[in-house]
Structures are given as C-alpha cells and as structure tokens.
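With this grant's support, we have settled on a layout for protein records. One resulting record is reproduced below.
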Amino acid sequence: MTVHETIKRINCGENIRDMKLRVVDYARVSTACAAQRSSFNNQLDTYRDMIMSNPNWSYVGTYSDGAAIIGLNQKTLI
C-alpha cells in the first residue's frame, strides 16, 4: 500500500491501528543539553513498544534526528 492509499483510507474513516503497515519509529532531540539523552531513549522505547504491541504493524526500523548535537552515537543506540 502506498502512502497516498493509506492517507485515503484514513480520510475515509479507517483506523490506522487496524491497517497492516510497515512502521518505523522516529526520535529527535533538538538541544545541546546532555539531559536530552534520556529523552531520546525514552522516545525510542515508547514508540518501539507502541509499534510492537500492534499485531497489524511490522516494525522495520528507526529514524533519528539530532543525536549528533548532544554527542550520541546513533549506531550504538539503535
């Protein structure tokens, strides 16, 4: 199913949680504050758990943004 087909189904009232989808999680930090490290990890955990708990969704990976700002190594986190 294409993105356009998915959007059309959602606009017609279908619940996205009921669709068979391949899903990625997305985590982002936007400041140079080292405290953002836990926020980044919490985002990953929350979204990964949400995806994995839905039998209609297949987890296919992670996209992250901003990790270099606070010195996180994306390859070791993901």
